[in-house]
Amino acid sequence: MTLLTTDKHYRVCPFCEGMCGVEITTEAGRVKSVRPDRDNVWSRGHVCPKGTTLGEVHHDPDRLRSPMIREGNQWRKATWDEAFERCETLLHGVRERHGPEAMAAYLGNMIAKCFGVNRYTGEFLKQAGIANIFSSSTVDQQPKNLACQLMYGDMWRIPIPDLDRTDLMVIFGGNPAASKGSIFSHPNVMQGIADLRKRGGRAIVVDPRRTGTAKKADQWIGIRPGTDAAFLLGVVHTLFDEKRVRLGHLEPWVEGAAAIEALAADYPPEKIAEFCGVEPGVIRTLARDISEAPSAAVYGRIGLCNQEFGTLASWLIDVVAALTGNLDREGGLMWSREAAPHLKLSPPYPSDAPVITGYTRVRGAPKVLGQSPAGCFAEEMNEPGEGRIRGLVTVAANPALSAPSAGAVADGLADLECMISVDIYLNETTRHAHVILPTASVLEQPHWDSWAWPFALKSGGHYSPPLYEPPAGWCPDWEVMLRLGAICGGARNRDIDIAALDDDYFAGMCRQVGIDPAVAMDHAPDPGPERILDLAIRTGPYGDRYGENPGGVNLATFKAEPHGIMLGEARPCVEEVVTTPSGKIELAPDFILNDIPRLEKALARPQPETVLVSRRQLSSMNSWMHNVDTLMRGRHRCTLQIHPADAARLGVEEGDLVRIASSENAVVAPAEITGDLVPGVVCLPHGWGHDAEGAEMQVARAHAGINSNRLSPGSALDVPSGNAVVNGIPVALEKAAESAA
Known about the structure:
Elements lengths: L8 E4 L8 E7 L2 E7 L17 H6 L8 E4 L2 E4 L2 H19 L4 E5 L7 H14 L3 E4 L1 H4 L1 H11 L7 E2 L6 E5 L3 H4 L9 H10 L3 E6 L4 H4 L3 E4 L5 H14 L12 E2 L1 H8 L4 H8 L3 H13 L3 E5 L1 H4 L4 H14 L9 E2 L21 E4 L6 E3 L8 H6 L8 E5 L3 H4 L3 H9 L3 E5 L12 E3 L20 E4 L15 H12 L9 H15 L4 H7 L5 H10 L16 H5 L5 E5 L4 H4 L7 E2 L3 H4 L2 H9 L6 E5 L13 H4 L7 E3 L1 H7 L5 E6 L4 E8 L7 E5 L12 H5 L26 E2 L1 E8 L2
Parallel strand pairs: 6-7, 6-17, 9-10, 9-13, 10-11, 12-22, 17-18, 18-19, 23-27, 24-26
Antiparallel strand pairs: 1-2, 2-3, 4-5, 4-19, 8-14, 15-16, 20-21, 23-28, 24-27, 25-26, 25-29
Helix pairs in contact: 2-18, 3-18, 5-14, 9-10, 9-11, 9-12, 9-14, 11-12, 19-20
């Protein structure tokens, strides 16, 4: 862990889409302080609490610094050669006994924050030939990916709100006060909302909770969880009914507006008001506000995705934007113009490819866009029969906490014949692994955020060099992914030629963007992720294309600017984005419309007395940052938020323990009574439950909390996308016997 330099260091925090620049000072080989970088061209001195703990994460004594092999219940440190040999024995054993169909991978969202792993996960999957791919995507974003694939022809061309130029910001199911912005990269969303209001604009939040964001908005519309699709249909109905539809410059690009009008005719606000728990006049007024504003940015995020009608709700956000002329325009929803478009370096999911790529073994649930639903993960491990998952590779994932049916997931993980984990912690999931291959720490690797920049409306970049060298003999993260993928695919460890694999992978990327691989390799001969980043920058909209554009930029340009470089802003670009077979924005895809009858049936059924939603907290990144002591100080935050009326009905007072039971399981949590909820809605944070035997995260264990995903039934899926339903879960409450005090 040798410090590479002794000066001040300028980096970008990798923990979320905020991309906050930080100034790191070291002393005697350790991080002394982490402060906001006021000269960073993106964040200009803004940072959240997570960004100030980069040093604590790096120095965390629980972080793994060598490969680990489990023998029985005991763990031992191993060399990299030993670890890969053990992986080969285990993985090949599963293939020989059960066939490759018994292998699975589970990918976590922290992949995006790891420089080498991020750029080699796709090649890992290709080499491994694994058909059962699970990930966090089907817990929190698959409906949006599906809607964009069908509407625009590209699952990753997600339009994002132009907060800095809008007159009206409407947020459905998002809470930037906690998330900093999710699939929405902005230097400081909450300051952006404050600035919007200062210039005479308005902010409106539609959410079952009066979130931190809602408290800073002009209006909070409390909605019953899981009913956003119906609410938005009421908005669309009003737009057509009152002749407020204005396609503007999108007129020649839109197909299906008449079908939307015919559909929405059946959903006047009066029909869906009781279902949504919102007065008809409120729905109509919001439609008028959006249509009458000089510009309006309507944004929907995770609360829309992980509910019963996630695809319908996520799709209708973009429908409303298009119908009001607020799609692909300044102040509305726009697409980014990324300086280093990594997603162009590997073939995208083809626009004319089938949405459904197969079906799960046990339930026969569709695999959508190549992903098996996370809600099916437990049963695919636990249900006997041919094709049962017997071998698993997890990459930066903690499904024992983050996946539905979490209790059954933990049981399944414990029974696997082979489990390999790429992770920096021995946590609730990796405790079940047979081999753990650690990645470098956040300060032992470079960083360029290939996840956040695609969702930013300013074009630029910031290269962060590593501060520390990894331990002697370290196997680089990208090489781990290539080697592990080849082993999974049946190769012998001793026969793997990493250099050849990497050159072949890089050459394919070059051809994808029209570059001669020999030319690119001549400019950047060293293997690994930096030459991929260089290729992305050079072939981006501002790049030099290896000399074809002499005034363009490359990776060296950014390395010379420690505070980053800004290059431009997004502009209308519908003609560049849309790649559907028709060449138009498909406003009414049949695959999505086929889910309307399911919504219609839901309108007629009785509503449960109490439903559960989840919440995120600013000081954590899902389940990942609870081992940082600084972030865990203060009052206990794993509480059940409950409305005063519901608390009175149950005889519950502040701090009392409450038993929460769903069809899946039951847990007990202390009550936090608050009026910041719609009555009949209770709320638990996700990512907690750090009391598992064998996990070695001492700070997290001291603040264990309870795992809300033990209540999430894996059987509950958004039908079109296969996304898990973890919001709006019917629950029964009762006061527990003892007080939390």
